[in-house]
Amino acid sequence: MSVTVQSFLLCDSVVIDAHSGKTTIQGVFDRLFALQYPATHPSCTLYVRLAADRKEGAPAVSMVVQRPSGAQEQPVPTQTLVVGEDGIAQAIINVQGLPLPEAGIYTFVLVVDGSMVAEFKLAAMTMSAPNVSSVPESRLH
Q: Do residues 85 and 31 lie in contact, with contact meaning Cβ atoms separated by under 8 Å?
């Protein structure tokens, strides 16, 4: 199947308006910070938008995450997407508890019908502990 990747994003949330069909993507990011590893990112969303020929059938979409160490995992099951009248297929994949076992660069690979079609990098970085005594009380959470 021939597809064109129009979007492949990691973000906080995605909302598609029921009346207008407009897609709102909030909080796109490519780096995370943790005090130590292993860590877990509590919640994020993967957004995929593909242009595809409806005559060729429904694309099967999966994702592979490669850790900095090279180990790979598939955090979400394969999904078959519906291609609309306009030739667009979208997936909104909510990921709860994204494991980050080590600091470094994670590569998210988008696979459509068994072929890699796109990838992006997520940097998992270590941040130093804040000096709480120097932070105004109103800024503490």
A: no
Rounded Cα distance between 130 and 2, Å, is 49
CB contact at 8 A, 27 and 41: no
Domain CATH number, residue 75: 2.60.40.2560
Provide the total of helices (H) and of strands (E) in the chain, helices listed first: 0, 11
- 84, 91 in Cβ contact below 8 A? no
pTM for the model stands at 0.84
- Give the model confidence (pLDDT) of 4-39 as tens digits: 999 999 999 999 999 998 999 999 999 999 999 999
Helix locations, the chain, DSSP H: none
Domain extent, residue 109, equals 3-139
Instruction: Tell me if 95 sits within 8 A of 75, measured CB to CB.
Output: yes
- Total number of domains in the chain: 1
- E strand segments, 38-114: 39-52, 60-66, 72-73, 79-80, 88-100, 104-112
